[in-house]
Predict the structure.
Amino acid sequence: MQKPIYKMLEEIDQLSTQKEKVQALNVHQYRDVLANIINLALNPSIKWLLPEGDPPYKPCEFDAEGRLLVELRRLYLFLEGGNQNLKQTKREQLFIDILESIDPNDAKLLLAMKDKKMPFKSINKVLAKKAFPEIW
């Protein structure tokens, strides 16, 4: 079973130095996924088309570790420049459906990303710029 993205980032956040964190992000087998997650959360030029705050949803009760990896390909639906023909109510329902299908901690991460926050103090714009200069 694949480790949740939240857990991967939590382990990197707990490393002692910024150098260790940059190195861990760059050698991680999911480097591109983590870069995308951090970019979606912290890049001010990316605009989410969802209301701020947590929508009403029921956290997933079954083993959904790794499910966010599958759902990442659909996140464009919630971003400015994504599917322009999608009605806002449908967009919000799709987002809730994703929240209800992924690991509860990954859902918290996704909600934080949408609100342009990171639940990990040391994973910030400074670290992102050092680890992933190509996206900043």
Observations:
- The two ends are 32 Å apart (CA to CA).
- The chain is about 50% helix and 0% strand.
- Helices lie at 5-13, 18-27, 31-42, 67-71, 88-101, 104-114, 125-131.
